[in-house]
Amino acid sequence: MSKFRKFYVVEKFERRKRSNVGKAFSVGMVIEEGGNSVVPCYVNNEFVESEVESRLFSLAVGTKVFVTHVFGGSSFRVTEKSKVMTNVADFDINMEVVQEFISPKVVSLVEARGSPKKRRLSVRGSVMEVGKLSEADSYKRRMLKLGNNNDGSVDIVLWGRQLSVHQIYCQMK
After folding, report:
1. For 37-47, how does the pLDDT look when each residue is reduced to its tens digit (9 = 90+)?
2. Which of 16, 62, 126, 133 has a CA positioned 20 to 30 A from the CA of residue 157?
3. Residue 136's domain spans which residues?
4. Whole-model pTM?
């Protein structure tokens, strides 16, 4: 654990729920000062609806913050002792990494199937199946199956507050 870390908010924090255990948690995507990848920053279920979660939820994309009492490496976790400070001195962020995360290159179905799980991808394929929308107060999630006759199919989970069937079909055209 470090005394503090400097983060740039790449994607707003939102609450999610583990369907198999029913526990809520929050996650936002951040890049650390000097970082070479965008990584998740988690608020565990015991701190949901806490002051630190409220502070993180209020952060806009593009906000630079100092966060104290943070655990992590390939992802970060805040604790009940964490403080989020927004009035901070400027620091350097690798904006190429941020842009690549926001708009990843389009990959084929074969490449998507071969990529690691929980990876952000832009995939080109036909929508074979649209799953039911799962939603709660602060999140929405939908499962999709993309495919074609030659390359098989791939299951995709779409997350987001603004997700709708209309947006899915527009994105896939």
Report:
1. 999 999 876 76
2. 62
3. 104-172
4. 0.73
